[in-house]
Every structure is written in structure tokens, then in C-alpha cells.
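User: C-alpha cells in, sequence out, please.
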């Protein structure tokens, strides 16, 4: 009998899941195995899902990590991390926490979207992404990262990420950094563990950029 949740695929819940994916990738391509020898065990990096996770992603856009953390801290202190609170807050309240005019609009659009975040847990990954990207301020990269780390989807990738593109260029000795379209096609070979491939390429990128002679 077919499981009604087969459309979701594997869910990454523990370090053992990440390790299983890494073993699969290593058997698929020896270059992944070489990368793992440099990176060591890959991080789980799971986060909570829901409104706050996407609001946090909006807050983090185009600012430093320190600035994003400061703004998020002020929003939490003010109790402005839920949709009803965002709707009820004045622009002045949100500006006082550090949100720009554009991000205030994005926060209000997300609050008004009516997304049932618990329902997304049961939706296919492509459906999750399609529903999220209609909200102003939520691009494909943000939606893919949400599916990967907040929903734990094992087979989703974020080919628009520059670090993933550069990590792939170095690991696979490419003449140039692959485009988003090119990397999306490449990643199809890494199914059903594309989320683990992303973790590996991010980890490898951070190791490789610190090695002498690699930029």
C-alpha cells in the first residue's frame, strides 16, 4: 500500500539522517567523499517552522548577521513575532525595532497571507515553495531554505546560493561558477539527498576558501 505521505519524501530529523545522506553521496561520487574528509561530520541545522521562521528570514535580508540578530531581539522583546501582533502593530512600533519601510510591508504581507504553516508539513516540497514565493519578500532561495531546514526535507536544493555555486566550482574543478540553472541540473543527480549535498557544499566552501591558494 502506498503511504499517503510518499509525496513528501524523506524527512531529516537526526544526525543519523544526515550521515546516511553523506554515505550515499560519497558512494555516488568520490569527490563528495574527498570533501567529507576535509569537512568532517555535517551539521544537522534544523530550525523550527512557522511564521516566525519566515519573518526572521525577512529580517535577515541584506543586513549583517549582527544587525539581524539585534533587530530580531528587539522584535522578540516587543512581542512582535506572530502574525496577529504584526497586524496590530503600528509602523512606528516596527520601525523602532529596526525594520525598514520595505521590510515592514513584507512582514505585513506575510501576516496577511493566511498560510497555515502546519499544513505545509504535509505538502510536497514543490507545493510548499510555490505557496511561499507568492508572498512579497519571500523569494525562491528563502522558500528552499525553509523547506530544507524548517521542514527537514531531504531532497531540496538552493542553486541560487552563491556559496553553493562556488563550492561546486571548486569541488568539481569547473572553469566557472555554475549558474543557478546549471547547478539545479547538476543537483538532480544527487537526489534523493540534495539537502545533504547542500550541507556538504556549504561546509566544503568554508573549508576551501580558507585553504592557501583558493579564493
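Assistant: Sequence out:
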Amino acid at each position: 500500500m502506498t503511504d499517503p505521505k510518499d509525496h513528501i519524501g524523506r524527512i531529516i530529523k537526526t544526525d543519523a539522517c544526515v550521515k546516511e545522506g553523506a554515505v550515499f553521496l560519497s558512494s555516488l561520487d568520490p569527490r563528495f567523499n574527498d570533501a567529507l574528509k576535509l569537512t568532517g561530520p555535517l551539521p544537522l541545522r534544523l530550525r523550527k517552522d512557522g511564521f516566525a521562521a519566515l519573518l526572521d528570514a525577512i529580517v535577515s535580508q541584506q543586513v549583517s548577521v549582527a544587525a539581524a540578530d539585534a533587530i530580531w531581539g528587539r522584535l522578540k522583546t516587543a512581542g512582535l513575532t506572530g502574525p496577529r501582533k504584526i497586524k496590530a502593530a503600528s509602523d512606528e512600533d516596527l520601525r523602532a525595532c529596526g525594520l525598514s519601510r520595505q521590510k515592514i510591508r513584507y512582514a505585513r504581507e506575510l501576516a496577511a497571507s493566511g498560510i497555515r504553516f502546519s499544513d505545509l508539513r504535509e505538502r510536497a516540497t514543490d507545493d510548499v515553495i510555490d505557496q511561499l514565493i507568492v508572498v512579497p519578500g519571500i523569494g525562491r532561495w528563502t522558500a528552499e531554505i525553509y523547506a530544507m531546514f524548517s521542514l527537514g526535507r531531504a531532497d531540496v536544493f538552493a542553486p541560487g546560493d552563491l556559496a553553493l555555486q562556488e563550492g561546486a566550482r571548486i569541488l568539481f574543478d569547473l572553469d566557472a561558477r555554475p549558474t543557478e540553472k546549471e547547478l539545479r541540473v547538476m543537483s538532480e543527480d544527487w537526489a534523493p539527498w540534495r539537502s545533504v549535498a547542500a550541507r556538504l557544499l556549504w561546509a566544503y566552501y568554508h573549508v576551501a576558501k580558507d585553504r592557501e591558494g583558493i579564493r
